[in-house]
Amino acid sequence: MTILPGVHFNSKACIKCGKCAESCPLKLITLEPYPKRNGKCIKCYNCLRVCPANACTSPIMWAFDIFHKFVSKFHSEKPWSKIYF
Predict the structure, then answer these.
(1) What separation, in Å, do the N-terminal and C-terminal C-alpha atoms of the chain show?
(2) Which of 13, 32, 46, 52 could form a disulfide with 23 if both were Cys (CB 3.0 to 4.6 A apart)?
(3) pLDDT tens for the chain, residues 1 to 85
(4) Is residue 69 within 8 Å of 62, Cβ to Cβ?
(5) Which residues are CB-contacts of 73 (< 8 A; sequence separation ≥ 6)?
(6) What pLDDT, on the 0 to 100 scale, is given for residue 13?
(7) Cβ atoms within 10 A of the Cβ of 36, count?
């Protein structure tokens, strides 16, 4: 059992761009017609970082905001990077 919160998809906010499905390292997300997870999520949160409409949400979003503010002080690069396994 994991302590990290899961990802939820908001179909009303989704613009069907498919970036969440492309960013999933296990290819668990499909667009039918809105994002749907098929299988056990490893909680890499790539879908949260790439969604332009904020349709992928999680209670852990506040941590990403804090991390982004901290990293942007020291690096001029985009702080989010893809996670590959």
Answers:
(1) 20
(2) 46
(3) 468 888 899 999 999 999 999 999 999 999 988 999 998 898 888 898 899 998 998 888 777 777 777 777 776 655 455 554 4
(4) no
(5) none
(6) 93
(7) 13
Q: Considering only CA atoms, which of 56, 65, 75, 64 is closest in space to residue 18?
A: 56
Six-digit token pair at 76? 């001029």
What's the confidence (pLDDT) of residue 45? 87
What is the amino acid identity at position 42? I
Burial of 79 (0-12, 13-18, 19+ CB in 10 A): middle
CA distance 78 to 3: 28
Q: Which two tokens stand for residue 38?
A: 């098929």
Sign of CA dihedral 62, 79, 83, 20: positive
User: Per the structure block, which two tokens stand in for 27?
Assistant: 């290819």
Token pair of 45 as six digits: 């949160």
